[in-house]
Amino acid sequence: MARRKKIYEGKAKTLYEGPEPGTIVQYFKDDATAFNAEKKAVIEGKGVLNNFLSEYFMTGLTNIGVPTHFLKRINMREQLVRSCEIVPLEVIVRNYAAGTMAKRLGLEEGTQLPRPIVEYCLKDDALGDPLVTEEHIAAFGWASQQDMDDILSLALRVNDFMSGVLYGVGIRLVDFKIEIGRIYDGDFQRLIVADEISPDSCRLWDIETGQKLDKDVFRRDLGSLTDAYTEVAKRLGVLPKGATPIRPTLIN
Ligand code: 5GP
């Protein structure tokens, strides 16, 4: 098979040119990073789990009419996605105070917010993805007012869908980050959910016990990250009971 052209290598994923124009192959690595890559590890099986979980969430979103870049899963670690121009913002939706918001506002982690709060960070690793306001976004032209209306609507629809699906399996969606892609149909542009949706980019707490089932397990040294992600995958039926991602043939 011809070698594929690498387009981009990020912290957790590598992108290759897809088989057809306008497509990209997204490869999920086992690399875990935190605190702007100051903390690093290779966690066997993480890429497989995130590939399956992102497929699960993106497919569900597509099925309820939320546009995403996802086309199909190719194998254990790769998925085919639509090529798009990434809006240079991280869109964060929070239902409960945690992480940087809890710290910034002096809130106890786990405090329920009066309503979902959407925040925007500039995608810039060198600056540590700083929080920005809509005023910055408009003034610097990172997104138009129409884009921001569409992004807010997408973010809240993703939140409603994800909160419901996860609540159904006893998991609280505390917060999450999504990225938005721009695609062009002739003269028209549309915004779609891009990148990935996985426990790498969400905070997921067991509703009964409060146990963390997301990347905070790695960030805060709380145990096995693979066990936490496997638990999420099992509850959602993405992994059959008893299977582990390290023995991939057991996965449907
Ligand atoms: P915080 O701002 O509290 O660190 O993060 C809020 C939410 O967004 C968390 O669910 C966190 O996992 C996610 N998030 C924020 N920044 C990033 C990032 O650069 N990469 C990933 N994967 N998730 C992020």
TrEMBL record:
Q: Which SUPFAM superfamilies match?
A: SAICAR synthase-like
Q: What cellular component terms from Gene Ontology apply here?
A: cytosol
What Pfam family is a match, any one?
A: SAICAR_synt
Reaction it catalyzes: 5-amino-1-(5-phospho-D-ribosyl)imidazole-4-carboxylate + L-aspartate + ATP = (2S)-2-[5-amino-1-(5-phospho-beta-D-ribosyl)imidazole-4-carboxamido]succinate + ADP + phosphate + 2 H(+)
* Keyword terms, alphabetized: ATP-binding, Ligase, Nucleotide-binding, Purine biosynthesis
**What CDD domains does this protein map onto?**
SAICAR_synt_PurC
- The UniProt record lists the EC number as 6.3.2.6
Pathway assignment: Purine metabolism; IMP biosynthesis via de novo pathway; 5-amino-1-(5-phospho-D-ribosyl)imidazole-4-carboxamide from 5-amino-1-(5-phospho-D-ribosyl)imidazole-4-carboxylate: step 1/2
**Listed GO molecular functions?**
ATP binding; phosphoribosylaminoimidazolesuccinocarboxamide synthase activity
GO BP terms: namely: 'de novo' IMP biosynthetic process; cobalamin biosynthetic process
Q: Which InterPro entries match?
A: SAICAR_synt/ADE2_N (IPR028923), SAICAR_synt_PurC (IPR033934), SAICAR_synth (IPR001636), SAICAR_synthetase (IPR050089), SAICAR_synthetase_CS (IPR018236)
Identify the residues that the record assigns to the SAICAR synthetase/ADE2 N-terminal domain, covering every copy: 6-235
Q: What PROSITE patterns does the record point to?
A: SAICAR_SYNTHETASE_1 (PS01057), SAICAR_SYNTHETASE_2 (PS01058)
Secreted listed as a keyword: no
Q: Which HAMAP family match?
A: SAICAR_synth
Instruction: Tell me the protein family, please.
Output: Belongs to the SAICAR synthetase family.
Alphabetized NCBIfam families for the sequence: purC
Q: What is this protein called?
A: Phosphoribosylaminoimidazole-succinocarboxamide synthase
* Organism name: Roseovarius albus
